[in-house]
């Protein structure tokens, strides 16, 4: 996530799922992550961040910055320090439940028809 | 700590861990994968990125000034709308890049502070004044044209947030180059006086574009003396190994010259370099090598315009202080009153 600072110099990352907050100078406005839904049928996408003191200003700044062109449908702003994240470096063991489990995929099993996968209406 | 280490259960030294992290980082770079904010990265990589991001962001917002000075004097409502859109884009590019820089754990307020104190640099290109209306066209066509060639490969830079910011930037730069070229074309098809104005602007903006937008020569074929080339080359090699840079400065500079010479010919303008001619053997245009040291001295941070740019930027920041204070006070009051800013 943008604007969530992380100590890149330490050799190990913490294994808890945390969002580290950028330390702000006195009175510096908060950081907000910006999400845009560019068109119908798509989910909101993270596009970057803005600084603002409140949500209304964050929305206004996000609009001015990320929507100078095009015809987007929707805009979200979320306080950066409200984003909780798992680091890519923590893939092991945090995401390990997704790995080495071939039996979670359909092609690991016998096809339903003699034509094989091609004749399978479920594929 | 990786699962491997955990299952092995062996006590690992800090050095082993560092080596493993470094190997993981190197493998990602080698595979052409991006490095993302919470990934481990070598300090040198992070420093080089931050330095480049800061300079890049500063250049975008300082770059608003030469053209911005013409906003109130645009010759038509159409040209004025176009110029406003272009200058807004430059502000936006700066903000995309400050946002990307913040993913490395810095605060944009500190970067701006460093700019205001003269501790971080910006492209010296923008230390040139825009003297006539034609300059706004020459800047957009030549310096933005140089930027497009420079920045297109940066959409594949190894640091994810930087690459994503550059994709947005490049989409918008294409508009800048076209509108600049269109402005120059209108002048070149106009009166003799307008054409002279266009030529004069090109005479003044050619060198800033071809020299400063690409940085110092980093190969001897770029015309640098051996020492300058060696220094440039070692920096470029490091940046290339890390995927922060994809081509040498001189390679990109050549690409720019090859693109612009035919464009200038179509406009009927003369690029102010008598050495420009097609080299059949090389398949490129020859041009006068950049004498970087001469250029550096003439464009040091101490010139009138360099000081002017920073002073103007600082004044704008200070003049805006009351707005920032008012916004903070309003947000604090609303928060204290327990009101949230719900928007329909």
The assigned structural class of chain A equals alpha+beta
Oligomer: heterodimer
Q: What would you call the structural class of chain B?
A: mainly alpha
Name the CATH homologous superfamily of chain B.
Ferritin, core subunit, four-helix bundle
Task: Specify the overall morphology of chain B.
Answer: globular
Helix fraction of chain A, binned, reads 10-25%
Radius of gyration of chain B: 23 Å
- Secondary structure tally, helices of chain B: 14
CATH class of chain B: Mainly Alpha
Structure summary, number of beta strands of chain B: 2
Key descriptive features of the protein:
heterodimer; A: 123 residues; alpha+beta; Ubiquitin-like (UB roll); 2 domains; three-stranded antiparallel beta sheet; 2 helices; 13% helix; 18% strand; elongated; B: 344 residues; mainly alpha; Ferritin; two-stranded antiparallel ribbon; 14 helices; 66% helix; 2% strand; disordered N terminus; phenylacetyl-CoA 1,2-epoxidase activity (chain B); Ferritin-like_SF (chain B)
Explained architecture:
The complex is a heterodimer of chains A (123) and B (344). Chain A is an alpha+beta fold. Chain A has two domains: 29-85, Ubiquitin-like (UB roll); 87-123, no CATH class. Chain A has helices spanning 55-66, 91-94, and strands spanning 30-37, 45-52, 74-79. The two termini of chain A are 35 Å apart. Chain B is an all-alpha fold. Chain B has 14 helices and two strands; from the N terminus they run αααααααααααββααα. Chain B has a single domain, classed as Ferritin, CATH 1.20.1260.10. In chain B, β1 and β2 (284-286) form a beta hairpin. In chain B, 66% of the residues lie in helices and 2% in strands. Chain B has a two-stranded antiparallel sheet. The chains are: A alpha+beta (123), B mainly alpha (344). At the A-B interface, β2 and α1 of A face α1, α2, α5, α6 and α8 of B.
């Amino acid at each position: 996530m943008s604007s969530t600072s992380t100590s890149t110099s330490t050799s190990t990352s913490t294994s808890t799922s945390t969002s580290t907050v950028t330390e702000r100078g006195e009175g510096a406005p908060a950081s907000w992550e910006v999400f845009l839904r560019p068109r119908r049928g798509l989910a909101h996408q993270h596009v970057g961040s803005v600084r603002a003191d409140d949500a209304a200003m964050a929305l206004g700044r996000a609009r001015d910055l990320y929507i100078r062109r095009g015809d987007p449908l929707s805009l979200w702003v979320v306080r950066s320090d409200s984003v909780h994240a798992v680091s890519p470096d923590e893939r092991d063991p945090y995401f390990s439940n997704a790995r080495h489990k071939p039996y979670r995929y359909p092609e690991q099993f016998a096809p339903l028809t003699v034509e094989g996968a091609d004749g399978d209406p479920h594929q | 700590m990786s699962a491997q280490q955990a299952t092995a259960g062996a006590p690992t030294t800090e050095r082993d861990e560092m080596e493993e992290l470094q190997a993981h980082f190197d493998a990602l770079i080698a595979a052409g994968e991006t490095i993302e904010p919470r990934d481990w990265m070598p300090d040198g990589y992070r420093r080089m990125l931050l330095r480049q991001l800061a300079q890049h962001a500063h250049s975008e917002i300082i770059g608003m000034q030469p053209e911005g000075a013409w906003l109130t004097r645009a010759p038509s409502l159409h040209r004025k709308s176009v110029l406003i859109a272009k200058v807004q884009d430059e502000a936006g590019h700066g903000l995309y890049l400050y946002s990307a820089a913040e993913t490395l754990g810095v605060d944009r307020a500190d970067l701006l502070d460093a700019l205001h104190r003269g501790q971080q640099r910006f492209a010296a290109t923008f230390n040139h004044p825009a003297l006539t209306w034609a300059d706004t066209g020459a800047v957009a066509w030549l310096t933005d044209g140089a930027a497009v060639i420079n920045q297109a490969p940066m959409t594949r830079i190894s640091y994810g947030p930087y690459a994503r910011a550059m994709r947005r930037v490049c989409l918008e730069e294409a508009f800048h180059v076209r509108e600049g070229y269109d402005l120059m074309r209108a002048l070149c098809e106009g009166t003799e006086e307008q054409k002279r104005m266009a030529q004069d602007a090109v005479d003044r903006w050619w060198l800033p574009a071809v020299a400063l937008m690409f940085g110092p020569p980093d190969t001897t074929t770029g015309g640098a003396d051996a020492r300058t080339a060696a220094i440039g080359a070692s920096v470029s090699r490091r940046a290339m190994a890390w995927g922060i840079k994809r081509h040498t400065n001189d390679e990109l500079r050549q690409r720019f010259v090859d693109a612009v010479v035919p464009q200038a010919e179509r406009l009927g303008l003369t690029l102010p370099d008598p050495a420009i001619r097609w080299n059949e053997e090389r398949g490129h245009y020859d041009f006068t090598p950049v004498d970087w040291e001469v250029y550096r001295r003439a464009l040091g941070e101490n010139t009138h315009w360099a000081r002017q740019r920073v002073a103007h930027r600082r004044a704008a920041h200070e003049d805006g202080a009351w707005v920032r204070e008012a916004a903070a006070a309003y947000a604090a009051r609303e928060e204290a009153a327990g009101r949230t800013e719900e928007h329909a």
